[in-house]
Amino acid sequence: MLVLGIESSCDETGVALVEANGTAMPVLRGDALHSQIEMHQPYGGVVPELASRDHIRRVLPLAEAALARAGVRVSDVDVVAYTRGPGLAGALLVGAGVACALGASLRKPVLGVHHLEGHLLSPFLSADPPAFPFIALLVSGGHTQLMRVDGVGRYRLLGETIDDAAGEAFDKSAKLMGLGYPGGPALARLAEAGDPQAFKLPRPLMHSGDLDFSFAGLKTAVLTQARKLGEDLPSRKADLAASTQAAIVEVLVKKSLAALQREGLARLVVAGGVGANKALRGELGAACAKRGVRVHYPELHLCTDNGAMIAMAAAMRLQAGIQEASTVYAFDVKPRWTLAELSVLT
Ligand code: KG4
Ligand code: ZN
User: Which of 9, 50, 101, 333 has the most CB atoms around it within 10 Å of its CB?
Assistant: First the structure.
């Protein structure tokens, strides 16, 4: 079974082919990706209307590239999967529209995928895939969640952010420091040259006893610190970046460990764009090694948005028999959609 996956929920257009045979773990056959970062950079953030228009321009050439890389013809595709949500409505509509048109013209069924389920299952495309059950730390630009995962579609939310997401905390702090968009990777790069203990920044909800997060206060503390530094900011920017990163990472590590302990599990999966952060990987690795916990990540290039994770999630849902692809080509998208709504757990 050959699944074509299309991702267009935000500022990356991704198309990929995943092959699933029998009960064997699906494998990536070919993928193609275009990031809109350069296009949005002058505006300091994603401009939704520009994002949609660019997805329209990119999606078919990318599909051709992915097919060529996989060495298959479009008529070989058995199922067309697309990101149904959450994300920017106009951007989602592009992927959904193209996927359904493609499915209709090929007379092949289509399947709408939850973007976060894509992130969650993306480590199964790595050379060292996890085994169920595990705790998942989902850290992206829009979400920060801890989840217990017992199988495909079996998700229980343990805690989440009550305001900003971890990626947002990186992005907004970076913006305050004049690091541009997307701020996460830029702040992380700058932090490598700084002292993580230079400034005392808050660790919100760190000792709250639950598994929720809050990052909005951190951004305010970074702003206050930046103002206090005034003219000295340029020379202390690396220290401020390192201190900000340390605050975010410490909270993520602490809460992940608490979730593992609470659920009595010894396996952690980290997914979403912030999962590419080297400091987070280092700290989590060290803390988990001490406790005999295995940590799994998607391959680095599959941490941020891509088509492979969408094709993979579709393939795994089909294999698990929890969803069938549909030949009804009327589609809708779900800009707001929680993973809990999708869970087969009651
Ligand atoms: O998963 P993703 O590509 O898109 C969403 O679904 O949101 O995540 C994007 C987020 C952005 O906030 C970006 O700044 C952050 O991931 N990010 C990073 C790094 N790479 C991406 N944050 C910190 N360090 C990184 N190396
Ligand atoms: Zn994402």
Answer: 9
Is pTM beyond 0.85? Reply is: yes
Residue ranges, CATH 3.30.420.40, the chain: 2-121+302-342, 131-297
CATH class entry, domain 2-121+302-342: alpha beta
Give me the pLDDT at residue 198, please: 98
Our mutation pick for probing the ligand 1 site, out of 34, 143, 170, counting the most ligand atoms within 8 A of Cβ, is 170
Contacts of 316 (CB under 8 A, 6+ apart): 20, 26, 121, 124, 152
Domain made up of 131-297: CATH architecture? 2-Layer Sandwich (3.30)
Q: Is 298 in the pocket of ligand 1 (CB under 6 A)?
A: no
Say if residue 328 is exposed, middle or buried (CB neighbours under 10 Å; 0-12, 13-18, 19+).
Answer: exposed
Ligand 1 centre to CA of 138 (Å) is 11
pLDDT interval class at 180 (50, 70, 90) = confident
CB 128 within 8 A of CB 20: no
Determine the pLDDT at residue 181. 86
Residue 335, token pair as written in the block: 């800009």
Query: Is 162:214 a contact under the CB 8 Å cutoff?
Result: yes
Q: What is the DSSP string of 148-160?
A: EEEETTEEEEEEE
3-class DSSP assignment, residue 213: strand
